[in-house]
Specification:
With 132 residues, the chain is mainly alpha-helical. The chain has a two-stranded antiparallel ribbon with strand order 1-2. It has four helices and two strands, in the order αβααβα. It has one domain. The two termini are 23 Å apart.
């Protein structure tokens, strides 16, 4: 017997949930970057979930967005932090973190997270409306 969670009703919610996880991990990476801005040899960390998601959606060419989202293999969407520009440093101590730039990235990521949260809320409002 199939449950409601196994149907395509939650396809968008599942993808948005993964995106929110990625945004949270990115927020942690940016916070670590800011905290280590004065640590000699530290290399900034980043998370690039957008590329993974775009690749997952692109694999279903010539389909509707609903079908593309339904075809996404959730186990392949794993946000992972990576070292950004590991061989690059504009400072003598080997650190490549610019606190001002990190602040901009943090603000941008917070806006993204709020947008994702709003999207999930809207999906559940729509489900609630349909169930009435």
């Amino acid at each position: 017997m199939s449950s409601l969670i196994d149907t395509n009703v939650f396809d968008y919610v599942n993808v948005l949930d993964k995106a929110m996880d990625a945004s949270w991990i990115k927020n942690e990476a940016i916070s670590n970057n800011i905290a280590n801005a004065d640590t000699p040899g530290y290399k900034r960390q980043d998370v690039n979930f957008e590329t993974q998601l775009a690749k997952a959606l692109r694999s279903s060419r010539y389909k509707t967005m609903d079908a593309k989202v339904g075809d996404v293999k959730m186990n392949r969407l794993n946000p992972i932090a990576y070292t950004d520009y590991s061989g690059f440093s504009y400072r003598i101590d080997g650190n490549n973190v610019d606190p001002d730039t990190e602040g901009v990235y943090l603000a941008k990521n917070q806006v993204v997270y709020q947008g994702l949260y709003q999207s999930v809320s809207e999906e559940f409002k729509n489900l609630k409306l349909v169930m009435k």
